[in-house]
Write a structure and sequence with these properties.
Length: 118
């Protein structure tokens, strides 16, 4: 399952990915196309051409998780970009994306990291 507070980065694969690929195929894309380590504490997120399905590859201490989401209606607001490249986003932006929003929210509240009580 998606590990809260243990994720270093979230990488989105730009362009469509053939989601018939399973763990080994997606890990190969991560290592060869993106030049990233699929065994890192990162999430790697892939979308299909229609942007209505996605897969998330995640390494857990002794094996991979492969999360899959299919929308019954609508599409993900997937960022455009060259196929075979990836961008890095935060967990907050990933939640926006999964909720159907753009990763570039203009009016979102700023995150408060520390609050001093008086």
């Amino acid at each position: 399952m998606l590990r809260q507070n243990h994720i270093d980065k979230v990488h989105l694969a730009l362009g469509p990915t053939d989601l018939r690929k399973s763990i080994d195929g997606l890990a190969l894309i991560v290592s060869q196309s993106f030049k990233l380590d699929p065994f890192s504490r990162s999430l790697f997120v892939f979308s299909n051409r229609k942007r209505d399905k996605l897969k998330i590859l995640e390494w857990d201490h002794n094996g991979f998780w492969l999360h899959y989401k299919r929308l019954e209606k609508d599409t993900f607001d997937w960022p455009d970009g060259a196929n075979g490249t990836a961008i890095t986003i935060g967990e907050r932006e990933l939640r926006w994306l999964l909720d159907g929003l753009s990763i570039h929210q203009r009016h979102a509240h700023k995150e408060v990291l520390e609050r001093v009580m008086i």
